[in-house]
Amino acid sequence: MPPSQTIMDQFPFLLTTMLVLLAACGSSNGQSPHTNMRPNEMSQYDHSGNPHYSHTDTAKLSVPLSEWRKLLPQELYHIAFEKGTERAFTGKYWDFEGIGTYACAVCGNVLFQADSKFSSSCGWPSFFQTARKDAILYHEDRSFGMVRTETTCGRCGAHLGHVFDDGPKPTGLRYCINSVSLEFIGKR
Ligand code: FE
């Protein structure tokens, strides 16, 4: 575990970016500067110099929830930090077939490769393995009268979904993930 960092250590360009966004979007309407942003534009909060924000560094983020609430779109915040779940068959990736990678929509941590995605008919994007061993963390979840294994982002701690043992070979696992929690990055 790296030593605790301040938010400005982790996001050295955060202040500048926020000021630019506030100027661009207008802060007088009371809306979050994220309101009109596309997911990839959130990369500016995470690091600079790369318009696509996937990365695989394992440094843990320790951003207060109050900061995430300000930075993230409402739906993403709800699923990531209030353990929400999108309705089945409504997400942007449940039946999506692209070649590339899926990163955490909150922090850009690469979570899955597209070649591990499979059609599970459950209504959520499903994968049989993670991109790296440390990409995801696992937690026992006893909510709703069930015993399940919750998955969270190994970097920022955002809730992603759950993993079940009814997946295909070679792992037999089914990572059932909210589309909202993912950002697809096509292979270039
Ligand atoms: Fe993350």
Short description:
It contains 5 helices and 9 strands.
Could you characterize the architecture of this molecule?
- By secondary structure, the protein is of the alpha+beta class.
- It has a single domain (38-186), classed as Metal Binding Protein, Guanine Nucleotide Exchange Factor, Chain A, CATH 2.170.150.20.
- The chain has helices spanning 7-10, 14-25, 43-46, 65-71, 74-81, and strands at residues 100-104, 110-113, 117-118, 126-127, 136-141, 148-153, 159-164, 174-177, 182-186.
- The longest helix is centred in the first third of the chain and has 12 residues, at 14-25.
- The chain is globular, with a radius of gyration of 17 Å.
Oligomer: single chain
CATH homologous superfamily (4th level) name: Peptide methionine sulfoxide reductase
Largest sheet: 6 strands, antiparallel
Distance between the termini: 33 Å
Number of alpha- plus pi-helical segments: 5
Question: Segments where pLDDT lies below 50 for 5+ residues?
Answer: 1-52
Task: Give the arrangement of secondary structure elements.
Layout lengths: L6 H4 L3 H12 L17 H4 L18 H7 L2 H8 L18 E5 L5 E4 L3 E2 L7 E2 L8 E6 L6 E6 L5 E6 L9 E4 L4 E5 L2
Antiparallel strand pairs: 1-2, 1-9, 3-4, 4-8, 5-6, 6-7, 7-8
The structure holds fe (iii) ion (FE).
